[in-house]
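Researcher: Predict the fold of DUF2029 domain-containing protein.
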Amino acid sequence: MSPTTEQQTASPQNRLLPPAFEALWLIGFWTLSRVVMLCLWLALCSFIRNDVNYYALSVTDLPIPVLTDLTGVLVEYPTPLVWLIQLLEWPSGGSVDLYVLLFAVAAATVDGVCCAALHQRESNRAAWIWALCGALLGPLLWFRLDIAPALCVLGALQLMSRRPALAGALLAVGAGFKLWPALLIAPMLGRSRTARRRGAGFLVTGGVLVLLSLVTSGLGRTVSPLSWQSERGLQIESVWATPLMLSRALGATGVDVQFSDFKAYEVFATSVGGWTIAASVVMFILIVLSLVLSAILARREQDQAPGAPGAVPDHEWAVRLAALAIIAGWIVANKTLSPQYMIWLFGPLALVATGLGRTGRAGTARRLVAAGLVATALTQLVYPLTYSGIISVLDPNVGSTMILVLRNLCVITLAVLAWAEAFRAALCPEAPRTCLPLPPEPPGWHCQISDDLSSQH
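Model: Structure tokens for DUF2029 domain-containing protein follow.
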């Protein structure tokens, strides 16, 4: 196995357990936490499977991906994602229950594969952060499609230097699933040969997916997810609905929550239009900032040898921060926010966690990972555990709504921190340095670098 960042920065005498035992601790935690998630689903929130029921019923008798005309089928989703949904129709034999089981098993498998890949290719810390994120979000991880684009983004960020064309292709596939990964190609572009290969991989793969969709389902169905999103209202969990939801919980009149035609709970009030405009303005600012940050990264990029797996060059570290910033900013700026959006953050958070093993990056990684983990934990409290109190028509629960407020504040904090650190890394790359030995690390979860060690350096 190739050396990881931790193996390069920590001497053997600083380990309490050999790598094999570290892997066993990780496997044990992942397995136990997923068993707890299963019990939680069975005991308290089996209703979260309803979305998967909807997928299964929508593709009944449509078992052949790509070749099927998807006009009128799951129009809110891009056609490549519907092709993915169709893959389970044939083995399920038309049984919704079997479809749900296969869907959950597939999602759990992807979850485990991502964790294992991070342990092997990145660091033990990165794998632990992925495992923790899944445990904190809960069983919803297995019953939403968002783990598919999250997998593509994780792969693209890991392979951006070693396999640049494949990294670009993975981002295109991710964008074919959920659109937002398309934003992440911008910070990966540049003047180097490696950057051009990433761009080419993205354009070629994206072009093929669009062409297949146009040929099989037509222009209207190909662009239907864009019109669907633009027509949606203000979802109750979004950052922009937070003031209205809080005032509603505190007894304000004229603020209603209803299940809309867009299959989501939305808030209705006279001021909704103003909040929606504010969201659009911030989204525009986010896009401009993304382009500015990407331009800075492109100007400072240099051709770098891939090096050993796990050794993260300064430019690649800055791109990882940029990806986290763009995703967190997208979640904040969007007028919709569903709990599964937190899955989008898993990969970038795990990759940023590799910085905990390097003196110049430990503080940044510590702040971002902490904010991400807290936001993820609060998300499970919001949905599914206290959601009924938030959407209650007659008596909205103040405590449940306050958890929602705290979660959104954490997401905003994460976005602000990520953007600040991304610009700092892009404008002021680290000077070459020799990593100092790390203090002893407990089994499984490794210690963070102490402040006195940083000051000595």
